[in-house]
Specification:
The radius of gyration is 23 Å and the shape is globular. It contains 13 helices and no strands. Helices cover 59% and strands 0% of the residues. By secondary structure, the chain is mainly α. Helix 4 runs antiparallel to helix 11 (261-283), helix 6 runs parallel beside helix 7 and helix 10 packs antiparallel against helix 11.
């Protein structure tokens, strides 16, 4: 039974890392990496957000979570050895979608990407210490094991049309219980501060839905049409078109073909589109104009939600001092 072991654990952290990335820019960095009010706020709330510190915190949370899982599984009659190695590679792969040379080689990094042709080294392959034990179980015992670990599979009535379903830690087995225990100690994912975190997510979703960037998108789309790429209404549409083409390709093949000309052609199309996209963003001052709008709207959001944000900041500070 596949389960994204760390997805729930890192969801709040991922939001903060995304926002905090906006607060560490310099004149040499892209406009999307410059300071924004909410990014600055969450960088302060979360503390030091450099990669090493983030990794250390994630590893500590994972270790504590896995110990809770092991105790829970033991209570249900199963052996479980904590999986403390998260399997994060220490190798650094450059990802520079705003650099012309990088884009000329990789496009958006969808069909081809840096490191995609590199097999993991033996030390990077994480083996599940529970694999031998699980394989020793009968089919019925294995089913019971995974239900204890992750909870029962959702029924058809619980599934949405797209196959997703609403997560509930109470029905997510020992993993759900462990994540709930970890989340209780984190103000960013606690019930007390859930309203403001939901408001932050809704705020960013609402920016696109309210079309506050529509004039910028229109200028970019006109530039793309002039460059021979008509039909797009937003910059995201360009990337999404490659994603759809790539999905269609994989649905059309029964097994991977090495050096497939069709995939090479798609990669070339991606690079051409990404280069035109980059040039048009530069021509219409895309990032700077979006940044200016974002700063103004974030300042307004912070003013409207000052009490809740102050309470969140105070809770985070108290947690760091304990």
């Amino acid at each position: 039974m596949p389960a994204p072991r760390l997805l729930a654990a890192l969801s709040a952290t991922a939001l903060i890392m995304t926002l905090a990335a906006c607060s560490t820019g310099s004149e040499t960095e892209s406009s999307d990496e410059r300071l924004t009010p909410l990014g600055d706020f969450f960088a302060a709330v979360y503390g030091d957000t450099d990669d090493d510190e983030w990794m250390k915190r994630a590893e500590e949370d994972n270790r504590e979570r896995e110990i809770i899982v092991a105790g829970c599984m033991a209570e249900q009659g199963f052996e479980y050895e904590p999986v403390v190695d998260m399997g994060f590679s220490s190798s650094e792969i450059e990802w520079e979608p705003d650099d012309r040379e990088w884009v000329a080689q990789w496009g958006y990094g969808m069909v081809r990407s840096p490191g995609s042709d590199q097999a993991p080294s033996p030390e990077e392959i994480v083996e599940d210490p529970n694999q031998d034990y699980v394989m020793s179980l009968s089919e019925s015992e294995m089913t019971a094991y995974y239900e204890a670990l992750y909870g029962p599979q959702p029924t058809e009535e619980e599934l949405n049309e797209d196959g997703s379903y609403e997560y509930n830690w109470e029905t997510a087995g020992c993993q759900g219980l462990a994540q709930h225990e970890i989340d209780k100690e984190n103000p960013l994912s606690s019930d007390e501060h859930k309203p403001i975190m939901d408001a932050v997510n809704a705020f960013y979703t609402g920016l696109e839905e309210a079309k506050v960037y529509s004039a910028i998108d229109a200028d970019w789309a006109a530039c793309m049409a002039d460059a021979g790429h008509p039909g797009f209404t937003s910059q995201f549409d360009a990337q999404e078109s490659i994603s759809q083409d790539l999905n269609a390709y994989w649905e059309s093949v029964t097994e991977p073909v090495e050096d497939d000309p069709a995939l090479d052609e798609l990669a070339d199309s991606e690079i051409a589109l990404a280069l035109a996209d980059l040039e048009c963003r530069e021509d219409v001052d895309f990032a700077d104009r979006r940044h200016e709008i974002s700063v103004a709207l974030e300042e307004e959001f912070i003013a409207d939600n000052k009490a809740a944000l102050d309470a969140l900041a105070a809770a985070a500070e108290q947690g760091r001092e304990q």
